[in-house]
Design goal:
This protein has about 350 residues and is an alpha/beta fold. It has helices spanning about 1-15, 40-55, 75-85, 100-105, 110-125, 140-155, 170-180, 185-205, 220-230, 255-260, 265-270, 275-280, 285-300, 305-310, 315-330, 350-355, and strands spanning about 25-30, 65-70, 90-95, 130-135, 160-165, 205-210, 215, 240-245, 245-250, 280-285, 305, 335-340, 340-345. It folds into three domains: about 20-230, TIM Barrel; about 240-285, no CATH class; about 285-355, Arc Repressor Mutant, subunit A. The strands form three sheets. The chain has a seven-stranded mixed sheet, with helices on one face. Strands 8-9-10 form a three-stranded antiparallel sheet. The protein starts with a helix and ends with a helix.
Amino acid sequence: MDFLSALIVESESKRGFFKGAESHSQTLYFGGGTPSLIDPQELGKIARTVCIHHGFNPPESLDEFTVEVNPDDASLTYLKSLYSNGVRRLSMGIQSFNENHLRWMNRRHSAAAAVKAFYNAREAGFDNISIDLIFGFEGMSTEEWRFNLLKATELYPEHISSYQMSIEPRTKLGKEYAKGSYTPPEDSTSYNQYSLLQKTLEEAGYIQYEVSSFALRGREALHNSRYWDRTPYLGLGPAAHSFDGERRFGNRSSLTAYIKRFSAEGKAEASQPGYRERYISSERLSSKDVFNETLMLSLRRVAGLNLRHIEGLVNQNEFSRFMVRVDRMLLSGDLELSGENIKIPPGRLFLSDGIIRDLFC
């Protein structure tokens, strides 16, 4: 397959990406679409090749190897094959256990299929499963949300990610919103649903460690945590992004362009003006960018932000102005102090975007 060949070529071309980087956990994540369209044996072959290119352990010995799966694709045979090819963690996009919600979201699976997929995964040997749930959309009552949460905790996955429904301009929902045929719920409704999420999962033994992430003790997502602490990461494939510690890179989203880039024809164009811009976007972060990004990523986490860690990222005047805003928010209760860390109290994490935005330099 042309795409898989291009993926291998890109990985080969990025040998040495992690050279000189500080020691970090070895993680691999297949997602961003429908990895389940790839045969598990092909996926395993790609994983083994990528691990060789970048000096990682074999897939089955990585610190974490996750694949996103759609419940409707998660047959027992498929999942057993994933496991035999080294995958040890699944991220399952269940979204809801309500049939009406699933139809409205245009999901192919049913609630029963989602439950079946989960138990198939257990039977296949997976003891590290994350499921996704969505709240905060028109037509879902508090009782329906409570049912979803109780159903999720009944399955008892190791990890639960839960997101408020977002409205993206070019999606079907975005177009309906623009026409006035979709009305998102009041902020107070979404806030109450988020509070119910926190309360229900805490009572079931889950620990919240990030705005949208809850895990049983010791089952936090290692791969995602690398994004939040600004550890270098490498993304392969169309629309994939990478970070080397100083710069961000992004592959263009076109599959056709991606395949061409790593073909003989594409390589022949490499010396032509504008070649890089046709296929890759890049950005070097300023000190202020690094400060704001560190602030944002840290305050989304329950552990919060270490003030000494970021003090040297901007000049003293800017840091002093930042601390004035911090002191004001400590008084208002939007922030709390724990040792040298500031963090957003659990009851205000739902408002984290606004709180963080007001702290930017």
